[in-house]
Write a structure and sequence with these properties.
2 strands, two-stranded antiparallel sheet, 10 helices
Length: about 170
């Protein structure tokens, strides 16, 4: 079960890091923090949540807290309060979670995954890279497909590219 979760994390990092979101350089954090949370419209929530990047939340936090497990936890906690929450309330909750051991572990894995995805997928490094992918929950069959994709490349490409190719073959 944990391997499936870590595999999903690795794949979601690919999609979250490959999506280019342009947010203006200057943000009015106070205005943002006073806005009411909108959980029922996930697209609107995500659009607004990303704006917190300039208000004390970094890209890694956005990736981690953008995952369903954290959002569901926060949503359920806020839902139990039965009051209208703002992005400031969300920010405070995120800051509290960021102090936990679990968050630090997830953040560390997020950083490792991001670095791994940037590195070139080279045939000669396959043994080492395979171990990393195994630790992230990929099965023997999936690893075989990924290895084939690496072998098919005329020149080394990033693991991000390989994982995107892998995903496209899975659908």
């Amino acid at each position: 079960m944990m391997h499936t979760y870590t595999k999903i994390l690795l794949i979601s990092v690919v999609f979250l890091t490959s999506a280019k979101v342009l947010v203006g350089q200057k943000k009015d954090c106070e205005q943002m923090m006073s806005k009411e949370l909108v959980f029922h419209d996930r697209s609107e929530f995500w659009h607004e949540f990303i704006k917190l990047k300039g208000c004390g939340i970094d890209s890694i936090d956005v990736n981690v807290f953008g995952k369903a497990s954290y959002l569901n936890y926060i949503y359920n906690k806020f839902e139990a309060d039965k009051k209208k929450e703002t992005y400031k309330d969300l920010f405070r909750e995120i800051q509290a979670i960021k102090k936990t051991h679990d968050y630090l572990n997830v953040r560390g894995n997020e950083i490792k995954d991001a670095a791994f995805l940037k590195k070139p997928a080279k045939k000669e490094n396959w043994a080492e890279d395979r171990k990393y992918l195994e630790s992230r929950g990929f099965t023997a069959a999936e690893l075989k497909t990924i290895h084939q994709l690496i072998e098919e490349q005329p020149k080394p490409v990033s693991f991000e590219t390989i994982i995107l190719l892998f995903q496209s073959e899975q659908h």
